[in-house]
Design goal:
By secondary structure, this protein is mostly helical. It has 10 helices and no strands.
């Protein structure tokens, strides 16, 4: 979960073993984002995109790095590319819950709340105990003005991840 240095090391090993596979670089980008090393994250994402040009997940992490650095215009552009890539990915991988979860995140980033909600629901249809998807669905309901549905996600989350449930309840109670 919070072993970001280990994630960097694992991604670097993957890149050494399979230097022509984009996922090692994408995972390195995500790990650098988690460590708040955003310039390294951007470099890793750009390397991934040299290998797989329209990868939605990579564009999402690239957008996040730019977002954290305050490059809002670039971030918005990359979030839109993330949506396009992830829509395509989920069409080709309809049973992969993480794809829909990432699509939901990308939709939230471009302020497409109803589409984000649908993506999270699709993720949870596949993997009902996917705690982060359930948390994000609750949050998406909340920012869409539906506190009751957000609370329902909180209730469901209590049985899956009490820490995330507590965080969601805290966010709900602030609104």
């Amino acid at each position: 979960a919070d072993r970001h240095e280990d994630a960097v090391a694992a991604a670097q090993r993957a890149i050494q073993m399979l230097p022509n596979e984009h996922m090692g670089y994408t995972n390195l980008c995500r790990a650098y984002n988690d460590l708040k090393q955003f310039n390294k994250a951007i470099e890793a994402c750009n390397n991934a995109l040299k290998i797989k040009q329209n990868d939605g997940e990579t564009f999402f992490y690239l957008a996040r790095a730019h977002d954290f650095l305050g490059n809002r215009e670039q971030a918005d552009s990359f979030y839109k590319k993330a949506v396009l890539g992830l829509v395509e990915f989920t069409k080709n991988n309809p049973a992969y819950s993480d794809g829909f979860y990432l699509l939901g995140n990308a939709y939230l980033a471009v302020n497409e709340r109803s589409k984000a909600i649908e993506a999270y629901k699709n993720s949870l249809e596949i993997a009902p105990n996917f705690a982060k998807a359930r948390y994000n669905l609750g949050y998406a309901y909340l920012i869409s003005g539906n506190k009751q549905l957000a609370r329902e996600q909180y209730e469901a989350l209590l049985n899956i991840d009490q820490n995330l449930a507590a965080r969601l309840l805290e966010v709900i109670n602030k609104r």
